[in-house]
Amino acid sequence: MSFLWPKMLWLLLALPACVAAYVWLLRRRRTAIGYSNIELVREALGPSTPWRRHVPPALLLGAFLAALLAAARPSAMVTLPSQFQTIILTIDVSLSMRATDVQPDRITAAQAAAKSFIGDHPPRSRIGIVSFGGSAQLVQPPTDSNDELNAAIDRFQLQRGTATGSALLVSLATLFPDEGIDVGAVVLGQSNDGSGGRGRAIDAPATARPPPAPVKPGSYNAGVIVLLSDGRRTTGPDPLEIAKMVADRGVRVFTVGFGTKEGATIGGDGWSAYVRLDEDSLKAVAAMTRGEYFHAATGADLRKVYEELNSRFVMERRETEVTALFSLGAAVLAALAMLLSLRWFGRTG
To answer: Pairing state of beta strands 126-132 and 86-92?
Structure first.
């Protein structure tokens, strides 16, 4: 547990003072009051009074403690229903996906796992599909139609090159269609408004608004990116630079490294090339955006990764302020102290 206003915890020093004051009042009452008939007093108090009389003050002390903790605004990791409304499934379709270290080959296994992910996706969420090779394309805008999503996956065409940064950028632009993210300018490394391509659409006027102020990484709960890749970037912008843009908008990226760690050789028509997974880059993107990295060496592994992600997108653990719970606890303890005092002693003090 953490606290948004930790300095308020200094008020807890008042608790020992309250206990000391209570003990002092008890001792003062014992010495200040005399009784001529001690048996009459014992009969009036009853046999259980020695412990009962301390219960309401103890409950009030607990209420005071809960109220002080609430003043410090506590937050904790709790499991809550996910608020993800849009999931961007970003899939590598570079030529390296022809490798057969995953049976029958990487692209076929990836397509099958993606269809399984779509079939089990959380209710009330939409999925968009971005494919990338030497460039990145939105092949299916976010939709809840499984038929349209599966048809988009069937249309995958392998490309030469791996533009991981471009894939992240297109995915981000899909999540924020109204922000005018200038995908073309970023990919080409230039922008007419001096913003680095982060704030203007290709056909937008020169007066387009600047990029929004950065927010806390991982704080955006309406959408998420799931990026699968089996190789290293060979073209396009640096994925870590684009990941910074993604993190500034609070979007999390869950990355999946697909294929054996040993790599594989692909080729055809007299050429061959050795392709290997770039785990370091994928891990860095996930860490920067407060997502998580997964490795899938087989098609079965990939389906398990997608199953786990689907379960997370239904219920997720996130840090949430729980001030209201402590305030409610303080109110309940205070009310219980008053009720017991009235029931046992006919008074509230």
So the answer is: parallel
Q: Compute the Cα dihedral for 101, 103, 107, 111 and give only its sign.
A: negative
Mean pLDDT, rounded, for 316-334: 82
Average pLDDT over residues 309-337: 82
Tell me which of 62-66, 158-162, 190-194, 227-231 is least confident: 190-194
Cis peptide leading into residue 16 (ω within 30°):
no
The C-alpha atoms of residue 29 and residue 15 are separated, in whole angstroms, by 21
Helices 106-119 and 299-314 meet at what angle, rounded to 10?
Answer: 30
Strand residue runs (E) in the chain: 2-3, 74-81, 86-92, 126-132, 136-143, 223-229, 252-258, 264-268, 271-275, 293-296, 315-321
Range 106-128 average pLDDT: 91
Backbone Cα Rg of the chain: 31
